[in-house]
Amino acid sequence: MAFKMKGFAAHDMFNPTTGKKVVAKTHAEHVALGARGYTHSPDDYSPLAKKPKGAPDWHDSDAPDAKGKFKSLSPNSLANWLIKTRKGNLSKIISSLNQQIVFNRKKKPSYAAKMKTVQNIVRKKLGKDKKKK
What we know:
mainly alpha; 133 residues; two-stranded antiparallel ribbon; 42% helix
């Protein structure tokens, strides 16, 4: 039987690396969770709080939000929009498209294929055709 501290009320505590909620039912559980780094606020959750040593800091992109343009625009229009908004930076454009390809290649292969088409259009428009061996 757990010791009941006078005035203690069961409450939520949160894992700081996963954000997972756990209920501390007793004062002893509360103390044990606190010792393991659990906090009282889900806002303390940060997946970047314990990044690996040497990992780069997170930087948000300075490119504008696409707001559905990747899906709604034709490949040629999307290529033009990417060139304009990424100021012709081929690396930024290809990175954006690679992310879409990787995230969608299994569940939406036609969408991933569209992104590959856009990559080829961008390369051609910027005069950086991929060398074929």
